[in-house]
From TrEMBL:
Transmembrane segment boundaries: 83-103, 162-180, 186-205
Domain annotation ABC transmembrane type-1: ranges: 27-329
Protein name, as recorded: ABC transporter ATP-binding protein/permease
Cell compartment(s), UniProt: Cell membrane
Amino acid sequence: MGSEQNMEYTKSGMLMRFLKGSKRFFAGSILASILVAAMDMIAPQIIRIVVDGCLGEDLSQLPSLAQRTLAAVGGADYLREHLYLAAVGILLAAGISAVFQYLNTYLNTKGAESMVKTARDWLFHHIEHLPYEWHMQNQTGDIIQRCTSDVNMVRDFVAEQLIQVVRIAILIGFSIVFMVSMSVRLSVIVFLSVPLIIAYSWFFYYKIGHLFQQCDENEGVLSTITQENLTGVRVVRAFGREQYEKERFRKQNEVYTNAWMKLCGLLSGYWATGDLIMGVQLLLIVVLGSVYCVRGTLTAGELIAFISYNRRLIWPVRRLGRMISEMSKAGVSMDRLRYILNSPLESRTENGVCPPLNGDIVFDHVTFGYEKEKPVLKDLDFTIRGGSIVGIMGPTGSGKSTVQYLLNRLYEPDQGSISIGGVPIREMSLPWLRSQIGFVMQEPYLFSRTIRENITMAGEVSEERLHRAVRVASLEETLDRFSEGYDTMVGERGVTLSGGQKQRTAIARMLVQETPVMIFDDSLSAVDAETDEKIRRALKEYAGQATMILISHRISTLMDADRIIVLEDGRITAEGTHEELLKKSELYRSIYEIQSPEANL
């Protein structure tokens, strides 16, 4: 994927990539549709022969192929006496057309689903490698809507509209040829109305293109609200926000519905106006055609065939109007997909070095801000000795969690550099770096799988290693209370577990990997003091084997660390052991006095 890092896809380039692997199906579908169109041209000629033959009209004006066919069955007189042959011919043409139509539909569907699979695989792969910052800036519901509804919109346009262009061209071309050969004057009526319909369709759909985009955007917002409420259902109910969320959903649903109602109203007007134009055109053809029949310049069979060919012409012309409509919607959807696929991938340094990460971690005058003009970390300069346990504490918004984001390269520093064991992390292979740094967040994400699968999601491990991680994370008693033990399903996002149980499961998930760097980002905030102490004591088993960074606002979690760094407003204001900070850091001392009952005695 490295070669795609900075690629900018046009709509056509993206579409060709989507079609990779499905072109052969669509090619077969196009061939079958051509044969269907060819068979559609035969039926009106058979009807013309039968009608004019029965009425005793001159058949010398028939196309040469039709005359040869008529001669082959015994001539007009024989056909008049054996009309069932005409019925057989029409049924035969219809049967052959049905076979080709089946092939057309089957191959078209195969191609469409193959295209959708390719598109979604590509989108998912790309999204998985987009920077963490991109995910923070985009709503999950909107991303899901782009990968489902917008992909389906492109699929429908390609399969139902674009692939039918060849068939439409054949129907239009041959219908015009046959109609002109039968009556130039009636053809003029058709030629005057067709451009009018095409121009009207183009103008109409050009004007309402922005409404399609509004509908897509409103659907994305609605998907986001739905997704937030489904994943946050416990919070919504805990705070009694059901009524508020229902009203929020109702309002957005109303906005979405109103946009579509407005669009549907305009579309209905378009189709109704088109029907009116077609009705006037057919009326003129019937009236003038009847006059020409009375005058003898047009036979009854020719008039019926002409009307039949006109219908075959009008269908694809009106299909062009729909195609313009679908093109407008598909264009909006392709732009929304291009937004994802043209978003730059994170720099993974695939060919970077893969050094051992048991050395010193050095932040060398690092400055970083989520917004360039508002730095969160300011000239951060410190060293964490390899194999040591270091705590980082500070008030909310001081930049504690940002430190681990930078160490994992979820973000890149604006200034300064970060190295481990003397090797800048920018030069390391990103997959390697992240595989060697384990971390537990305050709100860990658990998947809807068993506890065992959540703990071992990085790969298979030995039972001994698994049990050790569970014991150190103080999760053994919890598992003993579950009848299924390790095979207990935790539910979506770990909904069946308490906050402390989820944190301890996440801690076990990290410990089982035995990475050389371990980061605990306020990951003991939901456990009680006794369990907190048990876990901290157990973690000493890893002392010297891994560098541990404990990020917390709870001093009891940090007090046994080899060194504690105090952050205030993105700067280091003090560092030292617990005892040293009680003497020299006013912030640390004040927080300790608030949190420690003994200090208040």
